[in-house]
Amino acid sequence: MRKLLLCFLLIISHQLTFAQTPAFITDSLDNYIREGMKDWNVPGLAIVIVKDGKIAFIKGYGVRDTATQQPVDEHTLFMIASNTKLFTGTALSQLEYDKKLSIDDKFTKYYPGFKLYEPTTTQLLTIRDLLCHRIGTKTFQGDFTFWNSHLTPEQIMQRMKLLKPEAGFRSHYGYCNSCFLAAGEVIPKVTGKSWQQYIKDSILTRLDMRETFTSVSAVSDKQLLSKAYTTSFTGSLRQVPWDNWDNLAPAAALISSVSDMAHWLSFQLDSGRYEGQQIMPFNVLQKTRSINTPISSQKSSMLPTHIVGYGLGLLVGDYNGRQIYWHTGGAAGMVSVVCFVPEEHLGMAVLTNNDNQNLFGALRVQILDAYTGMPYVNRSKQSLKFFNATMKDTLSTIHAWQNRVKGAAPSLPLSAYAGHYTNQLYGSLDITVSADKKRLVVKFNSHDDLTATLSYMDSNEWLLQYDNIEYGIFSTKFKTAQGKVVSLETKESDFVEEDPYVFTKQ
Predict the structure, then answer these.
(1) Which end of the chain, N or C, is less surrounded by CB atoms within 10 Å?
(2) Which domains, and CATH codes, for the chain?
(3) Is the pTM of this model over 0.85?
(4) Residue 428: exposed, middle, or buried by beta-carbon count in 10 A (0-12, 13-18, 19+)?
(5) pLDDT tens digits for 151-175?
């Protein structure tokens, strides 16, 4: 009897230990965030932690606007970018449960004329394939063409046939935003509602997410919007334009607050229930959480994790013996993370307004450490060391390029480089000579307001600098033959797309 009593007391003691809020959350989190924001130059941050069906922590830090010093609070609105993807995956899973479609339906059932680069892939492609990043393309492939462009969803889907894969179909994880657009465009086919209206009706309204919007144009109080900032390519904080993801909405368009993300987390942690009502069957959520595409099965050198895979709009893995689910979101000037651990009844969301930092990611890991009993390691400082080294190298390279712009003349007159250039995937750009006749001006025609300058350095190299710093600063060259310009290669930030584009002069 005594042994049974002792075992019982040990079990209760263990349960109480994990029911208590970790000391890091109660005693250290506030200062940790403030110090991290200084280290990473983050103007504003909002965070929510949900534990055991309640909000354990919710707070805004810093400012949403560095000029007006308007503070961030739990209602400040940020783009959650790719955290939108789980909403799309969940909506399609619900439609499957309602027998309106099957996730394994061939995509051409809904879009008979749709084509990918390889005919066999086109024939085999399913909705599931689109939702788990396995069509064989590279991560972000095509995004320079699609991101912030004035192309319509239909035009983007038509151009997906030009995305040449780097690996075999279903053999490779390559993050694909246009795939999520295509998957989301099935929703109007089976419901008669746009993706925006269906997400609002089936998820946002039912979870009382009144501070979540499917487009910036739908935001009723623009004062709640945080400004967007970056330190990329310059090292200093600069405001950048808000992204317009309307043409890729199912991949990245949602705007929200941590107050509303608490509703989403509660719904995820309570098996599809919200405030006691079953909003969706748990089977719907389970469908999104099964790994479809493996990403890694090797033990991490820095984190207590071994396996990472992708579900339907959701990353799936392990952390210190618990199964975890999460996703990050990156838009110009904003990065975020949403994570939940059902076994610990734990969820969190971190929204920030500087895209060139990893405080948001360090916070996710730090909170997981605290709630799963890991020894304390300052994850922000750990990550900052690598970040600072990388930024130092990047800025040194850029400064070296800038110092080479000394007024030297290229091998041909500036007017020889001016003209109309085309790329099969992107479309066209136009190059003109600047008014002061010292540089070239580039206008990218698939975007309403994307421009750049080309300043000659030496050795046939030019300094390419986008007016929107989000796209970057790079060294590039024109290809010439027999005294004539043949083409120009343009590079853009890896945040947009990793591969360069070659534009041929017409």
Answers:
(1) N
(2) 21-391 (3.40.710.10), 414-505 (2.40.128)
(3) yes
(4) middle
(5) 999 999 999 999 999 999 999 999 9
